[in-house]
Specification:
The structure holds two protein chains of two kinds.
Chain A lengths: L1 H12 L2 E9 L5 E5 L2 E9 L3 E9 L2 E8 L2 E8 L6 E9 L3 E5 L2 E9 L3 E7 L2 E5 L1 E10 L2 E14 L4 E13 L5 E7 L2 E6 L4 E5 L6 E6 L4 E4 L6 E7 L4 E3 L6 E4 L2 E6 L4 E7 L4 E4 L9
Parallel strand pairs in A: 2-6, 2-8, 3-7, 3-9, 8-10, 9-11, 10-12, 11-13, 12-13, 13-14, 14-15, 14-16, 15-17, 16-18, 17-19, 18-24, 19-25, 20-24, 21-25
Antiparallel strand pairs in A: 1-4, 4-7, 5-6, 20-23, 22-23
Chain B lengths: L8 H5 L5 H13 L1 H19 L10 H7 L12 H7 L6 H14 L1 H9 L28 H17 L5 H27 L4 H28 L1
Helix pairs in contact in B: 2-3, 3-6, 6-7, 6-10, 8-10, 9-10
Classes of the chains: A mainly beta, B mainly alpha.
């Protein structure tokens, strides 16, 4: 009975099939991959070629379009949208990546170029990237490490994590925590409605930093030699500092203080949660 | 906060006060924490506004206009972008602060980037979404501004029409998160009702309202991408 069911299912979905193709690419080419359901996993190598391996139904066909601009990879279903396709792609480290999916998990390891990765239901996990790095998911966590450039991280219903990242950084979610560690940035903004925000990174002279949440807490590091004007706003929360600060401009729900010359600006806002500043390395959510 | 100097803070920022007025205002600021905080908020709004890009139009319309008004092609009797940016003056009275804040929130930061940059082929492409209109909203006004409410209603109506193109899991996620934002909006409104002059609460409410619009736009873009 089970064997019969398996056979019928295989007939309905088509037999599993593997596509494995390697194509040369020119310097500066971009790789675009579209998927509906499944996975896009990109690794890198030093060759000027892209290898695409795809596990898919025999009813689906993998199409790889090549042009001077780069490669475009997608699946075509026999009738209607394609079934689940799991891509394992190896690309040159320098190659710009544009990856998108619907029910798709996206992972990238070792990339050194621009990355755009967007999915609706699925996680986005990237290690590497430079220039514009934009990672988005509606229902899925977004994780980035070892990237530099202009970073844009977005989720709706899950958490965002970034570590070992340098450059301008924006992180936004509605229902999830935002954890930013080992950040070297002079321009960082993170906000969530229902979640905590942790920032452990630099406060550079002249930099701008803004962290805002409605229903969560903030934990932010301020290095000892920082020159920063800090404004703290909270409606129901409390403010704590791991080191002494001299409050100025104290009004209901709001505090200001300046450390050093105050050339950088740090805005901390939590409607309903506590706000705490500590030294780098001493910031953790559990505190 | 509603003292005689409150409405002069914008002029103070614009260097439009006489030296005697500046001296008097600065003396007042030294003793008025609330006014200092309000001044600080005004500075933040102005700074954010100044940080906005002056984006050039997708197509340069000037050659056609120049021809139409009888100017030689190549003549540019208009000030440069840099000059305009330098001249840009942003004045807000305190009652306008929230209005300015929400208008900026809608046009700047993540919202503007996501709407203006969009994506080429991704599932979150915003091609089905109308461009944002600058809206002036007093975030603290009862019932909020009619244009904001109309924009939300339009997007909700469009989403309802496109709902069939979204799977139930996506609909559930969007509804859940809209409800989280709605709760934040209600809480901010309630807090603001008790403390109407609180600039932080005004800005916070504006931020939550902006987020609701953005999520609705994204949801509509998703529905559009699936059609």
């Amino acid at each position: 009975m089970l064997a019969t069911l398996a056979t019928l299912t295989a007939l309905a979905l088509g037999a599993p099939q593997q596509t494995d193709t390697t194509l040369p690419v020119r310097s500066g080419a971009r790789l675009e991959v579209e998927n509906f359901g499944g996975e896009i996993a990109v690794k890198t190598w030093s060759r000027s070629a892209v290898r695409v391996t795809a596990s898919h139904s025999s009813r689906d066909r993998i199409e790889i379009g090549a042009s001077d601009a780069g490669l475009h990879v997608k699946a075509e279903g026999h009738r209607g949208p394609p079934h689940v396709v799991d891509y394992e792609i190896t690309a040159p480290a320098w190659m710009a990546l544009n990856l998108s999916g619907v029910y798709t998990d996206i992972t990238v390891e070792g990339a050194q170029g621009e990355i755009t990765a967007e999915t609706v239901h699925g996680e986005v996990k990237v290690s590497g990237g430079s220039g514009n790095v934009s990672l988005k998911s509606v229902q899925g966590a977004v994780t980035l490490e070892k990237a530099r450039g202009r970073i844009d991280l977005y989720s709706v219903n899950e958490e965002i994590k970034a570590s070992d990242v340098s450059g301008d950084l924006t992180a936004e979610t509605v229902n999830g925590d935002i954890t930013l560690r080992q950040i070297e940035s002079s321009n960082t903004e993170a906000n969530t409605v229902n979640g905590d925000i942790t920032y452990d990174g630099t406060i550079k002279d002249g930099g701008r930093y803004r962290f805002a949440t409605h229903g969560g807490s903030l934990r932010v590091s301020v290095p000892e030699k920082a020159n920063v004007a800090v404004s703290v706003s909270t409606f129901n929360g409390e403010f704590n500092s791991c080191f002494p600060v001299q409050l100025t401009g104290k009004a209901k729900h709001r505090f200001n203080f300046t450390i050093g010359s105050g050339s950088a600006r740090l805005e901390l806002e939590s409607f309903d949660g506590d706000i705490k500043i500590c030294r780098p390395g001493a910031v953790s959510k559990e505190e | 906060m509603n003292d005689q100097w409150t409405d002069r803070l914008s002029e103070y920022l614009d260097d439009d006060l006489s030296s005697a007025e500046v001296t008097a205002l600065e003396a007042h600021l030294a003793a008025c924490a609330s006014c200092r905080a309000t001044l600080d908020e005004l500075r933040r709004v102005v700074a954010r506004a100044r940080a906005l890009d002056d984006r050039p139009p997708a197509t340069d319309l000037w050659p056609g206009i120049a021809t139409g008004i009888g100017l030689a092609p190549g003549a540019h009797p208009v000030v440069s972008l840099g000059q305009r940016r330098a001249r840009r003056r942003l004045s807000f009275t305190v009652p306008e602060l929230a209005a300015a804040a929400i208008a900026l929130a809608m046009l700047s930061g993540g919202a503007a980037r996501l709407l203006l940059r969009g994506s080429k082929a991704g599932p979150m492409a915003t091609t089905a979404t109308p461009a944002p209109m600058p809206m002036l909203v007093n975030a603290g006004a009862p019932g909020t501004n009619a244009r904001y409410a109309a924009a939300v209603a339009d997007l909700e109506r469009a989403l309802e029409q496109g709902r069939g193109r979204l799977d139930t899991a996506t609909v559930r996620v969007i509804e859940k998160n809209l409800s989280i934002i709605d709760r934040a909006i209600r809480e901010a409104q309630s807090a603001l009702a008790a403390d109407p002059g609180n600039a932080y609460l005004n800005l916070h409410l504006a931020e939550q309202m902006r987020r609701k619009l953005e999520l609705l736009r994204r949801a509509n873009a998703l529905a559009g991408a699936r059609s």
